[in-house]
Write a structure and sequence with these properties.
About 70% of the residues lie in helices and about 0% in strands.
Length: about 200
Amino acid sequence: MEYTSTVALGGWRARLKGLSARRDRMADNDLVARTLAGDVRAYEELVRRYERLVGRVLYSYARREISVEDLVQETFLRAYDRLSTFNPEYRFKTWLLAIANNLGVDTLRRRREVIEFNPEIHAEYSGGPDAQVLEVERARGVQEAIKSLPETYSVPLILRYNEEMSYAEISEVLDLTVPAVKSRLFRARNMLAERIGDKDAAG
């Protein structure tokens, strides 16, 4: 009977450890590297991490003919096809969102319609029943105001306040300068305040 050498056994264990690595604990760039090396499940983990975020950004571009799910799927397909061009010196998240935003803009160019926005942008509410009712009404007012904004202003708002991205990250996603991002956010906040104020005055 032949016995496996210690060296061979050690190599086998190292290989097994590599194959069974917990992908959910790996950094994005490591998952990208594994994907490029042929690990399909590594890309599945990237999809799992960011599909909801991509969906939030693309919600404003979706319409009857093209669902959010279709746009999200197309975003990840485009990202997969271009993965070899990803620069690991940058964040995968901002690179991916830039692809999503460009897809959304292309979709708008093809179909010019009224834009609807994600209603799930308000935080969970707390307090008693009365406080919850007031918070729900306030959230609805904000949602209606956001629905009236063009995607030029809604997307930066979502990225900044819902996703808590920095000005620099938003500038990468939208391919704008940081001053331009700040300008759009300033204008978007003023537009929201005007719409909410007009609604309160009418009520």
